[in-house]
Amino acid sequence: MATSEHDIGRTLSVIPKAQQSSPPPTRRPGVRGLLPSTWEGRTIILAVDAGGEVTETDGVLLESFPFGPVCLVAGEKRAYSWERLVSVALKADL
User: Rounded to whole angstroms, how far apart are CA atoms 32 and 60?
Assistant: First the structure.
């Protein structure tokens, strides 16, 4: 009996019943940021994609949120999106 690509795709996408009923893995409590908490209050350098052009700026990391970091840059608070950040580095490490 010949098997078509459609039949192969259907058999590969079937999940056994034993795996469907198992509980999900336990999660760590608390918020997990993408930047270390020890960086808060320290000067960082941000490389930001601004419409295809990468610009660098430095500021003090105030807090890290799920949407991105909030920094104090030129005396004002700025929120950056993770999607726009190219790199983040501690200024002391450079």
Answer: 20
User: Rounded to 10 degrees, what is the CA torsion of 47, 90, 71, 37?
Assistant: 130
* pLDDT, average across residues 11-22: 58
DSSP state of 50: E
Find, among 52, 78, 74, the residue nearest to 63 by Cα.
78
pTM: 0.61
Which are the contacts of 93, defined by CB distance < 8 A and separation ≥ 6? none
39 has pLDDT over 70: yes
Q: Are strands 53-65 and 68-73 parallel, antiparallel or unpaired?
A: antiparallel
